[in-house]
Predict the structure.
Amino acid sequence: MDSPENDKAATTIVTSSASTRGTRAKKIDVLPDKYQMPKTQVSRAFVPCTKKECASMASSPSGGVDEDSVDPLEVECTDSAQSESLSLMKSEGKDAGKALGGFQAALEQATQELQGKPSFEENPAETYKQGVSEMPSVVCQKDVSDLQYPPCGPSISQHAGAAHEEVLHYAPQFMAEPSQFTQENEDCSESTREALNKPAENMILLDPKGQQHCGMHRRRLQFGEAPLYNTVNGPSFWSPSNIGSSSNLPANPGDSEVLETSCQEVRANSGGRQLIGPNQPTIPFSSPRNSGYSSSTVPRPLGIGLHLNSIINAMPYGSAATGSMKSSERGCLNIEGRKLVSMPRCRQPEITTKSLGLSNVREKASASSEDGSHQNESSVTTGSLASLSSDIVKSLYVPAFCDVSFNGSISFLEFYRKKALAANDDDGCKRCNCKKTKCLKLYCDCFAAGIYCAEPCACQGCFNRPEYEDTVLETRQQIESRNPLAFAPKVVQRMTESPANSNAEDGNASTPSSARHKRGCNCKKSMCLKKYCECYQSNVGCSTGCRCEGCKNVYGRKGDYGMTEDVLRLESSFEKKLEMIASQDGFLQTELCNPHNLTPLTPSFPFSDHRKDASKSQFSARRCLPSPESNVTSLPPYGKSLVSEYSHSHDLLLKDRKKVEDISSHQELDYSNVEAVDEFSLRYDGLLDSCDLHTLPNLPSSVNSLSWRNTPTTPVAQFRGTLLNRAVNSDQKLHDILEDDMPDILKDDSTPLRAVKVSSPNKKRISPPRSSLKELGSSTSVGLRIGRKFIFQAVPSFPPLTPCADSKNNSSQNIDDPQDCSSKT
DNA sequence: GAGTTTGAAACT
DNA sequence: CAGTTTCAAACTC
């Protein structure tokens, strides 16, 4: 059974074209069917598009890579047949079967149409080029503010026509102009261009052809599109969109990463290629048909790639904290991981950008990447993601989604992946070397990372292979039942840092402040100066969560990380106020949309309640999904009307914030202290910074932050929206303010205390340092509460059993079927 | 490459 | 839940 030979035979379908290509590639390519996402699911997840559109999309680099080319089309255009499908779904939103049938039909049609069209994979370069050239350079002239209105909100009803409602029904989160939608169906060609400018693109929820709708997909993922459990699919139903939903509104690049990650996972499944093995299993996206798991047991596929994150996180912090593509990649890997989970001992380059298929992105960004300089890649600050060109950013997200949408048939992503894999050889990735655990315990880095062992591994009696999926899953379940966060990233990266900050800190190439080990290390002899220390290994500084002795972590010492009482007090006060504000309508939305620092939670198995909660929190954070309980769906996301309402609160927040900052600034901070300060600043400022896309062309930072976080609007629209700048205006300001004031606590669970404390059954390891616990207890309690309140409950780790009822726990529901939810509320 | 050290994971 | 054992990576030679 364990025979590697058999494994190879069984799993290796794709022979490495390049010598460089690792075994990994083989395994990935051969991912069992169960890992693949069912077509039906895929189709359901996407909006049908017309042939014309499909062609355009197919030809487009985005193949999904290019958002610009893809999004508009897919959004605006739909065949009549497809429209019917949508209509059907709309009319019978809760009738998954019907909807499914319609989509399926549409999918098939689209597929047929698509055939014969150049795929990106076939001729990536050409396709890409073509797509780019073809991309409409339309600028959104519409009032951006429109985007900010909640789908469920009154504003929508006012504006939206019948057609619009339909659209909303599927893409409630998007605040697009109703009028736009109505026209779309009528005239795709025209609408296409117009659509580019409009938020409407977001509305496309379902795309029969993943390929073409990759962009859309991506968007959803990145921007926290509503999960598609929605009425249509039903609770258990998984769709790529769900993945995307993991982050409804990525507040920042980090979020995006997370999204991508989950995406990646999904893709892996759908594509039948394994990127992440074990993890995925947890999420049996696996089609029901393939997996023996009942739907109920199938949590959201999102899994969020925690594992991936982990892997990524594992990368040197210089890279982790810094790493342009990497961050994105990381995101891709672990959508959720939005942060970094350090994979202490295992370096898994395969999962790096390259492995994810993002390498090409890097290439785009810079030719240097190709030289195999991983370091360079990783050297970019995650926060610096913002610094990436919009193109790069876009492409980062695309691949993963594309894969999903391709449903394994084609793959632009595949193309990248192969390339990446080929390039990976140099990495000399070191895999596990387990001898006694059969690679079924967390001792095994591969297993812990949610990936199957591969040839590079020197493990003995390995069961962490696709052939033993059942065993792996079962084991994972056991472990997760014991510790829901067992597979969660160990290191949470703070994506909040603005490029400037990152640079400043990174002056020495290390960015300790940007990430923290969730649990904290427990080093006794290494003084956190060796890789024995997980913090050090992750290139992150030790924090109060660490129980290390004699900490000398070069990335930040434990003691230095602590907060002064004053700061804590202020923080507490701030958080209280924040909470108070949060109670107000709309504010929740903001919080929910601050996933940036939340750790991606591995997809957990539903069977565990507490785990479920934990995962919820994680997912919710990531996804920025509105908390069902909070009735977010009914709440307008930063509606204009709320501006004045918030202004007062905002002032209060600003005051507190200022106090905190002042205190922090007066502290004598050494390197570590700087981090502490940073953290604080991040708490209040970081969010915005993290999402700061100043460097992105045509994308005003303010706009970015606004759209990314607060609106479901896809980046595409925003990117294109040079005009968005002015459009944002007051709403934007509001968003900025809110986000600016948003305490990390709400957006980040990175703090060891918070993160670990909540879900880990094993208090021993997870519990925060005694010293800090008491100290932080009071102060953090508020934040923690908030986090639970808005984050933990927001997203269930697995699909709800019932559409809207579940919506209670399923934010996705809210998104997808806002009206229903709103009506309930 | 073997042996040692280390600290996380697992177990009691 | 603290203490112990097991484990595999990290490290040393």
